[in-house]
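Q: I'm teaching a short session on how sequence maps to structure, and I want students to see two examples side by side rather than one. Could you give me a first protein with its sequence written out and its structure tokens following it? Keep the formatting plain so it prints cleanly on a handout.
A: Of course. Example one:
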Amino acid sequence: MGSTAVEFKNPATSTLLEVVKARRTYYGLKAESPISDDVIERIVQDSVLHVPSSFNTQTSRIVLLLKEEHKKVWDIAISAMEGLVAAGHVPKEMFENHTKPKLDAFRAAYGTVLFFVDYESLAPIKEKFAIYADKFDPFALESNAMSQYLVWLALEAEGFGANLQHYSPLIDEQVTKTWNLPASWKLDAQLVFGVPTSEPGEKTFEPLENRFKVFGK
């Protein structure tokens, strides 16, 4: 199943897909920005406002951390991992040779976007549509994932590199306390971004024939 050259009606479609194709995971990042903080903030704000959610429940919550505030979240992660080492849950050699350098690399970036889901806000819709009550939490997580992807795409389109991390629940309590966030906000992911200092790894694909089918063409 090979690709076929097509002509899009709207040139923006081609631009969007090129941005999608260009998105990569960058681990080597430095604390510099190719754009103003206001532009970064606008990207995140637009994702909060315009990413769709099931029944328009608007369950995603996002915190943007820049510069020194960004460093704090990775200090929290380092401290939490050091606690696991001290308790004997993580080997000291693994922490020093693998985990700590990785966390230091995240800390060396320019910013972090924290993505949360407010599951408690779903109580009214779960009561109204009780037959679907068990579906709303997964729907909320799917909406949050769309926000993560949109912000990632937009930041890379503006010249950043980024990588997505998941250090919950290890850092959750301290994150909530440090930035005085509502207890109902449940942390899901952390998007680290900065100016790339190295190239991303090779992008590989499973055969499209095993992952895509079309009928009725």
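Q: Perfect. Now a second example for contrast.
A: Example two:
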Amino acid sequence: MSFSLLDIIALACFLISWMGYTAFARRKAKTTNCIARCLHQHRIHWMFEVMSREIKVGEAALLANLERNIAFFASSTLLVLAGVLTLFAQVEKLEAVIASIPYAETPNHALIQLKLGVLASIFVLAFFQFTWSMRQYGFLNVMIGAAPLGEVDKNDNLKNYAKQMAVVQDQAAHSYNYGLRSYYFSMAAICWFFHPLLFILASLFVVYTLFIREFKSKAVRAITFGQELLATERKARS
């Protein structure tokens, strides 16, 4: 099995980009306003409100909508994975297609199989993340069902319970985000079939896109401002 140095560098760049950005985003979110950090505060406010509502039909509907979105991606991931696995039996046809594309790298049978294996692994990881997210939302439903009625601001036990519900929801959202991130990086992995240089550029572009959307987008600014308004309103109530 022969691999060019450029292919090895491209694969290393891809893995470093993915794992490096994940570690960077997790660390930066602890000190910088971003989607993950501000939505966590929104979830805490949400769970505080849940504790003060006798009828929780609205919460059930909102959570069901979130679970439907995740279920869609989980089922779609299985279909995509089935398609990728099918390509293992059609490697020769795939090589012919790649060879017909201008400026594409000359296909290598063993390398094509490796690329398909990497792509399949990405979607397997995405499936595990989506299904774990669904299970955690199920745990949250149980916690909401068990939540007693009371004034959170005057009861430390209820306040801590609301925060724990927010933590479970936060973890479910993180798993969903990791699954979506797998889809982003799968787009970069597809570029490897054409040329390793394109693979490197696509990996860096995905990192740039994720950073802009999670830390610098208009949505982040709006969510941050909204979280500050909620915090001010809660202080005024207490």
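Q: What should students look for in example two?
A: Point them to this: The mean pLDDT is 91. Also worth mentioning: The chain has one domain: 35-232.
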